[in-house]
Design goal:
The strands form three sheets. A seven-stranded mixed β-sheet has the order 6-5-11-12-13-10-14, with helices on both faces. Strands 8-2-1-9-16-15 form a six-stranded mixed β-sheet. Helix 1 (about 10-20) links the parallel strand 1 (about 5) and strand 2. It has ten helices and 16 strands. About 35% of the residues lie in helices and about 25% in strands. The chain is globular and about 60 Å long. The structure holds flavin-adenine dinucleotide (FAD). Flavin-adenine dinucleotide (FAD) binds near residues 48, 139, 141 and 246.
Length: about 350
């Protein structure tokens, strides 16, 4: 039986491990923390369901992963600039909210359970040298951070809600969000090219605006946050090791949605080993168009700064089918394809400390 060693028991590492074990490999996963999901603090994350025609839950199942974690579909979403509130109800879920962390119903614990059931050996508190590894899935630990998220999670008696706030005082170049589902909530500010205490004032403003606009009840508050990494030139394979998820730099550069990329890249890493196929080619076929579009989108967003948010709000006002707009925005057009080389070069020069 062939042995495979994976570094990092997160989304991409465990997806790779589950698929490899099911194909008959003997898989060891080395995780530096003492449990899966410890990188996170019980925050809610959106498993986006707009960048592909295929429903994300269907896509996940097609990659041999069961939906044994809690995930709440959201069809109704709100968009605001801090003054006007726009609402839209889509015909299909725009995203599914999942919990990240060590809660029993979290995505991380769901994957851990499936991995253990299929015979993966997970070694916790184990920080090994990457030299002996076949797959590197260490998330944001591998690269320089591109941005950071700061916020709170809480309990609430308020109704379920999903709000996205576009306001330059509440977020640096990205957005803020308020999410409540089944009595559990999360409010955060996402900031690009900004780390540490510098993001505190953005979250403070996020909190001010959200609590002024929405009559929500917040109790048992815990601080949450973290960093995210994107690379303009992903890593794929280096020194014979396959890189997956954020360690490879696979993340939506516009708004930081990385879970779909992580699960897909873990699956493709396993497929490349099982079927002896070229990993980079598999990624290019399935994910590269969307990754490149996110680079073009980020360039446009940075170029137009506050006007970009105003465009989006105007667009949202004029169009009733928000999920379709997101689908179009996240997939290549003639325009985003044409500007991609320039966008990549421009971002590489301007933000070389972050990308
Ligand atoms: C606060 C926050 C909010 C986010 N919100 C969203 C969202 O709403 N939607 C979305 O799609 N994405 C979101 N993301 C991004 C998403 O969480 C990541 O893209 C995704 O988790 C990446 O998966 P991964 O497999 O690459 O890494 P992870 O799932 O992070 O797993 C990496 C694992 O490697 C371990 N590790 C690190 N270093 C070592 C080492 N040296 N040795 C052994 N193990 C190691 C870590 O402990 C961790 O368990 C968010 C990120 C943050 C920080």
């Amino acid at each position: 039986m062939e042995n495979i060693k994976i570094m990092g028991a997160g989304l991409s590492g465990l997806t790779a491990a589950i698929n490899l074990t099911k194909a008959g490999y003997n898989v060891d996963v080395f995780e530096k923390r003492d449990d899966c999901g410890k990188r996170f603090q019980g925050d809610l994350e959106g498993l986006e369901n707009w960048s592909s025609k295929m429903d994300i839950l269907h896509e996940i199942k097609s990659m041999n992963i069961k939906i044994n974690f809690n995930c709440s579909p959201f069809k109704k979403i709100c968009l605001t600039d801090g003054k006007e509130i726009l609402e839209n109800t889509c015909d299909k879920p725009v995203f599914y909210l999942v919990k990240r962390g060590t809660n029993e119903d979290s995505l991380d614990q769901g994957l851990k359970k499936q991995a253990l059931e299929s015979g993966v050996n997970i070694h916790f508190n184990s920080k090994k040298n990457s030299e002996n590894m076949d797959i590197i899935s260490v998330g944001s630990a591998e690269n320089k951070p591109t941005g950071s998220v700061k916020g709170i999670r809480f309990e609430s008696e308020s109704d379920d809600i999903a709000v996205s706030l576009l306001n330059k005082e509440a977020s640096n170049r990205a957005y803020s969000y308020l999410l409540i589902t089944n009595g559990y909530g999360c409010m955060c500010s996402v900031n690009l090219y900004l780390m540490g205490n510098a993001v505190n004032r953005y979250f403070k403003k996020t909190y001010e605006i959200m609590t002024e606009l929405f009559d929500i009840n917040i109790k048992n508050v815990k601080n949450i946050g973290g960093v995210g990494c994107c690379l303009l030139t992903p890593k794929y394979v280096k020194k014979g090791k396959i890189y997956t998820g954020e360690a490879a730099g696979f993340q939506d550069l516009l708004w930081g949605f990385g879970m779909r990329y992580a699960i897909n890249s873990g699956y493709l890493a396993a497929k490349s080993i099982i079927e002896n196929k070229n990993y980079k080619k598999l990624i290019k076929q399935r994910l590269s168009d969307r990754l490149k579009t996110s680079v073009s989108n980020r360039y446009i967003a940075d170029r137009f700064k506050d006007r970009y948010s105003s465009f989006l709000l105007e667009w949202a006002k004029e169009n009733k089918r928000w999920r379709d707009i997101l689908y179009r925005g996240y997939n290549p057009s003639l325009y985003t394809r044409a500007i991609y080389p320039f966008a990549k070069l421009n971002l590489a020069l301007k933000y070389k400390n972050f990308l």
